[in-house]
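Following up on my earlier thread - several people asked me to post the actual chain instead of describing it. Fair enough. Here it is, all 255 residues.
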Amino acid sequence: MTVDNGAEPAIRADARRNRALILAAAQRALAERGTTVSLAEVARRAGVGAGTVHRHFPTKTALLEAVMHQRVDGLAALADRHLADPDPGSAFFALCTHVIATTPGNKDLCDLVQSDDGWPRALLRGAGNRFHRALGALLVSAQRQGAVRPDVVVTDVLDIFTGCVAVQQHRRANDPLAPAVVLILDALRTRPSPVTKLAEIERNETVEGDETAPTCPVCGSRLGHSTTGRPARYCSAACRQKAHRQRSRAATAGR
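Reply from S.P.:
Thanks for posting it. Predicted structure:
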């Protein structure tokens, strides 16, 4: 009797594929319908039988924890990748934007995991600790670069995530970050020095015109009046570049 040595690896590959399909379907279903979604609905969306779902996840609790673990583990991996970015400041704010923009659909699941109902959390704690360490390392790099205020700590960032997700949850899935969220994230940035502030004041005072003169949407400085061509939208190339980066991050988060 001969044994097909390729059969077992093929079965394992098929099982891994089914597990991935189930987790992806569960993620979508939970985002749309919350934690009340049934395992039968998850199986239907994954295109597998209910028995296949039960073989991988005997209980709904096991499935919910696996989805949350995948989510947190993915954020930890993303934070680790950002650590290699040559611009840690931009990488830090890109990670913050991603977390806030993609978490509202997972809020019910997050609330369940944080509740005191006896959930098995060992696996989630490990993934959460990896994310916190990577986030902390990225924060320190951004602070050393001078992009983030030096008085900010990781727990502050996590608290900001909680508040911003609550704000963002009132917007549609593909909407850019809410204006209030953008303001909160901007508060993490290093404040301009007194010299810079004074220079901005002096520059503003040299601009003639009344109080209704147009202002730069990035820094609020008054815009000079142009006698030829299209009127200026930004006060400087730096503000124009910052606005472009903000639009790019918002577009990336909305995809």
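The longest helix spans residues 7-33. That should answer part of your original question.
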